[in-house]
Automatic annotation (TrEMBL):
Cellular component per GO, a single term: plasma membrane
Organism annotation: Pseudooceanicola nanhaiensis
Main localisation: membrane
Family: Belongs to the 4-toluene sulfonate uptake permease (TSUP) (TC 2.A.102) family.
Protein's UniProt keywords contain Transmembrane helix: yes
Name under which the protein is recorded: Probable membrane transporter protein
Residues annotated as transmembrane: 12-39, 83-101, 113-131, 170-193, 213-235, 242-264
InterPro entries named in the record: TM_pro_TauE-like, TSUP/Inactive_protease-like
Classification via Pfam families: TauE
Intracellular or extracellular location(s): Cell membrane; Membrane
Its membrane topology: Multi-pass membrane protein
Length: 305
């Protein structure tokens, strides 16, 4: 069943798009990530132009993240105050990222920028997460001796502007929190991601938040940043395809509820191993495409002229 996407100017199988949305929704519910690191490359493979894939995938992330957030709110595993601090930086970073995206789009360098960003960030984050999560998994099984006690104080406790986050049981500076949100906002605009693959490990390893609170809080911030990013892309570059977004949203909302239930059945260490493995798999696929000669060396036309 083929459907025509007016902004992307291509015809794509309806069930393929629905399946992509469902997979990303499951990831959102399981890991607290928007899933953009996967949905954008999958849309590339489905034949969607890069500018449309980046702008529209941010739209789908809003829906899947909201669906997952509702489940976490019912379980009271969302730190609203932490989420608001992350949001301050996220909105600023998103505006800056959209400006850079549109500038490179005019220069015809968007495709290269997006793919290089994916390979760089996914490779580093995925490798670090996999190493740490495998160590944590071995400790949980008693194979690596007793776990070292977590340091009670680090550099986030020494900076000024401290605030108490009761849900996370933290009293730390708001500066690193805002900086994390800022970096995630930039990535959301340039890569069409929610930024959860950066924010989740940063919240765990830098801020020291409990894993059970990280997922819901991450989704809270992702919703507003990606919604703002989508609005900016729609107004400035006109690359948001509503038909594509609608199909992805339907699959994402259903998938997020399934993913939340799956996530509750797995241990935190197992979740981190799965997420790290998936991040590295996507990174490897994109890195390979940078070196493999394309079937067609020249493409005539395209979104944005």
């Amino acid at each position: 069943m083929q459907i025509y996407l007016p902004i992307a100017e291509v015809s794509v199988n309806f069930f393929t798009l629905l399946g992509i949305g469902g997979i990303v929704g499951i990831l959102s519910g399981m890991f607290g990530v928007g899933g953009g690191f996967l949905i954008t490359p999958l849309l590339f493979l489905a034949g969607i132009p890069s500018a449309v894939a980046v702008a529209t995938s941010a739209n789908q992330i809003v829906a899947s993240s909201f669906s997952g957030l509702l489940a976490h709110l019912r379980r009271k595993t969302v730190d609203i105050r932490m989420g608001l601090m992350l949001l301050v930086g996220g909105l600023i970073g998103s505006a800056a990222g959209v400006y850079v995206f549109n500038l490179l789009k005019e220069l015809g360098q968007v495709d290269l920028l997006v793919r290089l960003c994916y390979v760089f960030f996914l490779g580093i984050v995925g490798a670090l997460m996999l190493i740490e999560s495998l160590r944590a998994l071995r400790r949980a099984r008693g194979q690596a001796g007793p776990a070292k006690p977590r340091r009670q104080r680090n550099w986030v406790h020494t900076w000024p502007g401290k605030m108490r986050f009761r849900t996370s049981q933290l009293y730390i500076s708001t500066i690193p929190v805002i900086l994390i949100g800022l970096s995630v906002g930039v990535l959301a605009a340039i890569m069409g991601v929610g930024g959860g693959f950066i924010m989740v490990p940063a919240m765990i390893y830098i801020l020291g938040m409990p894993t059970k609170v990280v997922v819901g809080t991450s989704l809270f911030q992702i919703i507003f940043v990606t919604a703002f990013t989508t609005l900016l892309h729609a107004v400035t570059s006109h690359t948001v395809d509503l038909m594509l977004a609608l199909v992805l949203i339907v699959g994402g909302v259903v998938g997020a509820q399934i993913g939340t239930r799956i996530g509750l059945r797995l241990k935190a260490e197992q979740l981190r191993v799965l997420l790290a493995s998936l991040v590295l798999l996507v990174c490897g696929k994109l890195a390979l495409e940078l070196f493999v000669r394309p079937d067609e060396l020249y493409v005539i036309g395209g979104v944005g002229g």
